[in-house]
Amino acid sequence: MPDRTTAALKRLERAKQDVARAMARDFREGTSANEIARRARSAYSRPVVLEMIKAELAAQEAREALSAAQTAISLASHVGVENTGRFAIVGMPRVAQKGRRIGDMLTLQAVRTITEAGLCLRPLADHPADTDPAFILRHGGAVEVYKPSL
Predict the structure, then answer these.
(1) Is 52 helix (H, G, I), strand (E, B) or coil?
(2) Is the whole-model pTM more than 0.90?
């Protein structure tokens, strides 16, 4: 029996990411978040639109910061940034396989690069809120990256 559901869900997820990118692009080009929320009101509530814009902006800025921080250790190749639609996450899944010294250095550089870009990191819901994001990243987990204010 053919599986049409999985393919349709993948298309839906890509479409949601396209909407978030378009919202962030409009915002960066000067359209107010309230105007974007008004335009999207048939599909999303205002709070969801604001979350989507913040998440996409944070994801874009994290990617840009990491890409600009290309170093001898090729930091960007060790760090993944993904926009879930509601928030952006950063992960370093392969860093846990590195030796302690290199893994610590990669994690420190990633955290420094992201925070120097004006972004913040916090644990996802599957970790206690007071867990150090660097600890989570160092051990192959993912954390949320966000802008402190829109």
Answers:
(1) helix
(2) no
The answer to whether the CB of 24 falls within 8 A of the CB of 56 is yes
Determine the Cα–Cα distance for residues 141 and 123; give it in Å rounded to an integer.
9
- CA distances (Å), 99 to each of 78, 106, 141, in order? 14, 11, 16
CA distance 4 to 13: 14
pLDDT band for position 73 (50/70/90)? very low
Give the separation between CA 139 and CA 3, rounded to whole angstroms.
35
Q: H helices of the chain, where?
A: 4-28, 33-39, 46-68, 100-116, 133-138
d(CA 122, CA 144): 5
> Is the pLDDT reported for residue 42 higher than 50?
yes
